[in-house]
Design goal:
The structure holds 2 protein chains of 2 kinds.
Chain A (H helix, E strand, L loop, with lengths): L4 E3 L2 E4 L5 E6 L6 E8 L3 E9 L2 E4 L8 E7 L2 E6 L8 E8 L7 E2 L3 E5 L1
Parallel strand pairs in A: 2-11
Antiparallel strand pairs in A: 1-3, 3-8, 4-5, 4-9, 5-6, 7-8, 9-10, 9-11
Chain B lengths: L2 E4 L3 E5 L4 E3 L1 E4 L6 E6 L5 E7 L5 E3 L5 E5 L4 E6 L8 E8 L7 E3 L3 E6 L1
Parallel strand pairs in B: 2-12
Antiparallel strand pairs in B: 1-4, 3-9, 5-6, 5-10, 7-8, 8-9, 10-11, 10-12
Classes of the chains: A mainly beta, B mainly beta.
Chain lengths: 113, 114
């Protein structure tokens, strides 16, 4: 049963610390999306990649957030420095190019104190 | 631009009674429409997807949705609610710009009472 995996599942950190979240897309999927979910804003698209290249990261605060795909099996989302307003659940999703269905991971719940 | 409107933020039903979650969409083209479900502290799971093959789409766990172009609606239904159906449901439309982006509704929380 192919699934998107995310680590860590929960992260508590202090303001100013660096946070790195990881995502392993479904094997063979070449499109990866990062979302953030909060009570106030709902689901927001932060960035997405196709064939490891960033296609759109306009939803991401550029000064502190960065997203990369070091290889086809790993996507990372980094926040440096973290702030309390970054507290949210971060989801990764993957899909196939040309198909609009996205498959979501279980999420990383981030709490910044 | 594509958008979806979920007409109810909360829906409460009793176990064994029908479920109706309402969604209206706006799209310049024939859209792809989805319903995703999110159980507490879980990720989003695809319930069903409409492309253009059939207006009545059957999904998992007994859910189905009907695409009505004249009403620009894509309501989700289930004949008989189970306690395990309690979750947040998102109506979603695909962005037709070709970049595979999804546009999410604000969600409807389904509450099921015994």
């Amino acid at each position: 049963d192919a699934r998107v995996t995310q680590t860590p599942r929960d992260k508590v950190t202090e303001m100013g610390q660096e946070v790195t979240m990881r995502c392993q897309p479904i094997l063979g999927h070449n499109t990866v999306f990062w979302y953030r979910q909060t009570m106030m804003q709902g689901l927001e698209l932060l960035a997405y990649f196709r064939n490891r290249a960033p296609l759109d990261d306009s939803g991401m605060p550029k000064d502190r957030f960065s997203a990369e795909m070091p290889d086809a099996t790993l996507a990372t989302l980094k926040i440096q420095p973290s702030e309390p307003r970054d507290s949210a659940v971060y989801f990764c999703a993957s899909g196939l190019q040309g198909a609009d269905t996205q498959y979501f991971g279980p999420g990383t719940r981030l709490t910044v104190l | 631009a594509q958008s979806v409107t979920q007409l109810d933020s909360h829906v409460s039903v009793s176990e064994g009674t029908p479920v109706l979650l309402r969604c209206n969409y706006s799209s310049s083209y024939s859209p792809s429409l989805f319903w995703y479900v999110q159980h507490p502290n879980k990720g989003l799971q695809l319930l069903l997807k409409y492309t253009s093959a059939a207006t009545l789409v059957k999904g998992i766990n007994g859910f189905e949705a009907e695409f009505k172009k004249s009403e620009t609606s894509f309501h989700l239904t289930k004949p008989s609610a189970h306690m395990s159906d309690a979750a947040e449901y998102f109506c979603v439309v695909s962005d037709t710009t070709g970049f595979q982006k999804l546009v999410f509704g604000t969600g409807t929380r389904l509450l099921v009472s015994p």
